[in-house]
Amino acid sequence: MASGLQIQGDESVLLRVTHSNLKSFSADIRFSLQMTVESVKEKLWRKCGTSVNSMGLQLYDDTNTKISDLTENSRPFGFYSPLDGYRLHVIDLDPSSVTSGGWLEDTSLVEKYSISEEAYEKRDGTFRKFKGKLTSHNPSTPGNKIPDNYMEDLCSNIKVGNRCEVEPGEKRGAVKFVGRAENLAPGYWVGVQYDEPLGKHDGMVKGVRYFDCPPLHGAMVRPDKVKVGDYPERDPFEVDEL
Fold this sequence. Notes:
The chain has helices at 37-48, 117-122, 127-137, and strands spanning 12-19, 26-32, 55-60, 66-69, 87-92, 163-166, 171-180, 188-194, 204-205, 208-209, 218-221, 226-228. The strands form 3 sheets. Strands 2-1-5-3-4 form a 5-stranded mixed β-sheet, covered by helices on one side. It has a 5-stranded antiparallel β-sheet with strand order 11-8-7-6-12, with no helix packed on it. It is built from 3 helices and 12 strands, in the order ββαβββααβββββββ. It is 12% helix and 26% strand. The protein is of the alpha+beta class. Residues 180-222 form the CAP-Gly domain. One of its GO terms (biological process) is tubulin complex assembly. This is CAP-Gly domain-containing protein. It is found in: Cytoplasm.
């Protein structure tokens, strides 16, 4: 133990820490040899929850042989000659400690909050009510039937031959089809021939031809994605700024 009385500089050791009540707890923690045993306990209290006054410490070497019980709080930690790789074992002496009984590790011991179906229905701001409001505003939500006239009103100003711009991406082209598509989801669709090969097909979708256009120039989109108006074909060589 003589070497423990000659602590120079700010030497430290890296120890593996285990706990008597927390079987899954194992941490590598660095300690200064100049710390008192009480300071070591305070550091460990923040790590594992065992109070300083209820904590016992045991030091084991790298062969798992116990070297010493750290019983004197005022002594410097280096007095006990710990080395890198040694194990510092925390013993919780308080039978009513938060670490006892497995409460911090076994979640099955924790009483779960429950609420009756009737009480849940009366609450505002629940996920169920949010989901119901969401589906009422968005008929395309899975599990919510889409009516056959879905977005028909948005097609009133979209005519075949109109120039258009499609979101997202501000893709420009011409309207080639407006109406219901028998092999797509219910509601109204707009077929567009893009000016550039930004589409998915040539106007044929799932074996049904809705219009003709060059390969990869065609797309079927919902009317709310389409704006008609003065959208001339872009010059690929146009420079916005010199």
